[in-house]
Amino acid sequence: MTLKDFIGEGDHFARHSGVQVLSVAENYGKASLVVANEHLNAGGVCQGGAIFTLADTALALAANSGLMLTLSVEASISYHRAAMEGDVLTAEAVALCPHPKIPAFEVKVTNQRGELIASFKSTCYTKKAALNGVTGLE
Amino acid sequence: MTLKDFIGEGDHFARHSGVQVLSVAENYGKASLVVANEHLNAGGVCQGGAIFTLADTALALAANSGLMLTLSVEASISYHRAAMEGDVLTAEAVALCPHPKIPAFEVKVTNQRGELIASFKSTCYTKKAALNGVTGLE
Amino acid sequence: MTLKDFIGEGDHFARHSGVQVLSVAENYGKASLVVANEHLNAGGVCQGGAIFTLADTALALAANSGLMLTLSVEASISYHRAAMEGDVLTAEAVALCPHPKIPAFEVKVTNQRGELIASFKSTCYTKKAALNGVTGLE
Amino acid sequence: MTLKDFIGEGDHFARHSGVQVLSVAENYGKASLVVANEHLNAGGVCQGGAIFTLADTALALAANSGLMLTLSVEASISYHRAAMEGDVLTAEAVALCPHPKIPAFEVKVTNQRGELIASFKSTCYTKKAALNGVTGLE
C-alpha cells in the first residue's frame, strides 16, 4: 500500500471532513478541501476545526513520508483570512527540521486565488515502528 | 435564541463532527464528543482535528458569551494522551484574560476517566457587532 | 550539586536577565523576576523576551526534575497584562503530561497582586543522558 | 527619530541581551545576535529566551513599520538546531497577514551557515496610537 492510500483511505476523520489527499513526497504533503455548507460555523464562514483538519492531513503525509509512525505532539494555527462556502483550500506541508525523533513541519493553507488563509506549525514524534504494510509514497 | 442554540445548531462543522454543546456561562463553555469510528486517523486513534474541533467549539461558547461576535485568531493545541474509539471527551473553556478586544482562553480536554487528553490555548478578536438575534446564554 | 544550583548558577542567560530560581520539586519549578529598567521595551513596559525567559527558567526546573537532560522543543506564550518597572513577576511551571520522552508543561506568570501576566506552554524532549553531577533537586 | 533607532536604542531588554537591530522596511524587520557566554543555558548551548528575544526584536520592527503602536499578543517558537557560543544568529520577520488591527508575522532565525535555528510566529494588536516622535523607518 502507498502512504497516499494509507492516509487517504485510512484517516477516517479527514475523509469524513471532506479532505482530499493530493500528493506526498519526502518531507512534503499536499491536501485540499472544498468548503461546503457542512464546514461553516455559526458565523457563516469556514470553521477553524475544518481548516485545522485539512492542515493536519497535509502534515500527516509529510511527517510519515519516512515510513516510520510519526505523530503530531502539538500544533499551532494562525488564521489570516476567512474561507467561504465554495472556496477551494489547499494545504502544503514542508519540513522545518527533519530531525529523526522530533521533526517539525510548517503548513500553509491557501485558497483558489493563492491568498494565504492560515499558517500552521507542528512538532511531531517519530516512534520506533515502521508503518505496517506501507511500502511506498504514492 | 440562546447562544447555546446559536452555536449548537448553527455551527455546522461542529455538528457534522459529532460535537455536542453542553453549557455556557460568562467566559465559560463546555462541549463533548463521543469518539466514533469516523473520528479515527490512519493509526486507529482519535484524529487531532477532531479533538481540535471539540476544543474550538467550547472556545466559541466562552468567547462569545459577552454576546459580541468574537473570532479565534490563532490557537495552539498540545496532545497528552491518545483518545480511543468509545472514549467520551469533554472540553472546558475558561478565560485567561477577559480583554474587551483581544481576549484569551484556555481549553482542557479530558476523557471519561478525567485524564487530560489535550491542552488548547487561543487568542480571539471581538468585533464591534452584536450576535444577531442572540439574547441570552442558555 | 542540586538542580536548583545547576540551573540557578549554570543558566547564564537567566542570570544575565535577572531571573531568580526559587524552588523545584518533581515536575514543578518556580522562578521570579523584578522588572527593572533593563527589561523594558521601547514602549516602556516589560519586554516579551524577558517574560519568556522567566517562564522558560521555571520550565527548565520542572522539565529536568527527573534529573535527565530535557530540552524545550517548542513553546508558546500569550500575554495578558503589561508588566511595569518595579513589578515582581513569579513563574510557576507544572507538568501537563509527564511523558518519559516528550513531556509537556504549562507555566503561569503572575505579578505581585496575583494577576495573570502570561500563559506559557511547552513541549520538551528528554534525552538518554543523566544531568552530569546533579544528585538532588534543592 | 527613525523606527530603527526607536527600537534599537529604546528596547532596553533587546540591548541588554546583545541584540542588534539591522534593518526595517514595510512589514519587514531584521536583527542579529552573536552568541556569547552570557547567552548560554546550563546545558552549554544558547538559551531559548535569548533566541526568542532576538526573534521578538525583528518582530517589533516589522510589526511597527506602519508607525502605529503594535504589540505582540502571543507568540510561538519552535527550536530546530542548537546555537553555540560564537554563532552569529540572524532573525528576519515578514508579515503573514497585514491586517490593520490584528496582523500576524513569521520570523525565521538562521545561523552564519544559513541553517534554520528556530521558527517563530506571532499575532499582534495595533493600537489607535501613532508611535510618538517616529517619522520614518531607517
Name the features.
homotetramer; 138 residues; alpha+beta; 6-stranded antiparallel sheet; globular
Description of the structure:
The longest helix of chain A has 16 residues, at 48-63. Chain A is built from three helices and six strands; from the N terminus they run ααββαββββ. Chain A has 138 residues and is an alpha+beta fold. Chain A is globular, with a radius of gyration of 14 Å. Helices cover 21% and strands 41% of the residues of chain A. In chain A, strand 1 (20-25) and strand 2 form a beta hairpin. The model of chain A has no long low-confidence stretch (mean pLDDT 97). Chain A has helices spanning 3-10, 12-16, 48-63; strands spanning 20-25, 28-34, 68-79, 88-97, 104-110, 116-130. Chain A binds chain B through residues 6-7, 10-14, 16-17, 37-43, 46-50, 52-53, 56-57, 60, 69, 71-79, and chain B through 6-7, 10-14, 16-17, 37-43, 46-50, 52-53, 56-57, 60, 69, 71-79.
Strand content of chain A: 35-45%
- The largest sheet of chain A has its strands arranged as 1-2-4-5-6-3
Q: Average pLDDT value of chain A? A: 97
* Major β-sheet profile of chain A: 6 strands, antiparallel
**Per the principal axes of the C-alpha atoms, what is the gross shape of chain A?**
globular
Could you estimate the helical fraction of the residues of chain A in percent? Answer: 10-25%
Rg result of chain A: 14 Å
Oligomerization category of the chains in this entry? homotetramer
Low-confidence stretches of chain A: none
Number of helices of chain A: 3
Q: Distance N terminus to C terminus of chain A?
A: 9 Å
Total strands of chain A: the figure is 6
Helix and strand composition category of chain A:
alpha+beta
* Main interface by residue count: A-B, 36 and 36 residues
**What is the element string of chain A, with H for helices and E for strands?**
HHEEHEEEE
